[in-house]
Amino acid sequence: LRYCQQLQHNGQGATTPPLEASLMNGYDPELWRALQREEFELFYQPRIDLRRGSICGAEALIRWRHPERGLQQPSSFIPACEASGLIVPLGYWIIQEVGKTLPAMKEAGLDGRIGVNLSFRQFQDRYLAPTIERLMQEHLMDTRTLEFELTETALCSDEEHVRSTINQLSNQGVEFSLDDFGTGYSSFSLLQKLPITTLKIDKSFVDGIPGNQDDEEIVRAVINLAHNLNKQVIAEGVETRAQLEFLIRHDCDQVQGYFFSRPVPLDQFLNLLSTNRRQQAL
Ligand code: C2E
Ligand code: MG
Ligand code: MG
Ligand code: MG
């Protein structure tokens, strides 16, 4: 966790409490140890551009490779990380990890952005924007390769601070998408006020297409809403050909889901990128 220690020595980026104090601050000791021992791992789920028919980026999704219990899904540990605040240093580890692996992804042909989930809790760190900027500089990350996925809960606390953080990063070229769109309480005014470039239609609506009239209507409405506001739209959780055909017919821009690929470890994602590039060249 060199970057954590560096942050402490650097006054302007003093985002994390000293390591010892962190333990006392109520971080779950097992999860804190997991972070120190680098037991977390990022998987990548490709995003498919429906017009080009090719991979146009990916979402980074965290996993915990527990030494005894094996691979743990985020639902089993992210809530605890959010509750204790460990998501703040973990969130920086995630961005650093993406930064380290971006060169290999570009080498394999990545053409597009990597989506990183940002939890509402991470905005409670006053230094979120400057710390992200520092990590991007340290890892020579092109800001045009990052996209942060926000949920409506992160934005609901209509705080000036949340808005200025997003604006500051957006001015650097980082993009923002609205995750699980339609399941939260966001108002249309948020879409106007914030520099959101992409809406991600929640899987719960995609599950019902084609066939469920309400879900069909909602999916169509979100696609139209996005396009009328000059935004991109991604459908999440696409598992079947019938869903895909519905989305193509209604002009959805991108899809993500098991139909194309589950989230996979980095080496497999690099293979998918290389294969994708070969197919594009044909
Ligand atoms: P999310 O950001 O909405 O991520 C999409 C979830 O849907 C992922 O679950 C993904 O594996 C799953 N998914 C994608 N396509 C399909 C499909 O076709 N069928 C089904 N059944 N599922 C599909 P995962 O990886 O378990 O992540 C769950 C949630 O945990 C994420 O929802 C996100 O809110 C959170 N999360 C994951 N990684 C991170 C992270 O790095 N940081 C933060 N703060 N939260 C994360
Ligand atoms: Mg899962
Ligand atoms: Mg997401
Ligand atoms: Mg989602």
UniProtKB/TrEMBL annotation:
Domain of life from the UniProt record: Bacteria
Protein name (database record): EAL domain-containing protein
Organism of this sequence: Marinobacterium maritimum
Residues of the whole record sequence present: 127 to 408 of 408
Residue stretches making up the EAL domain: 24-277
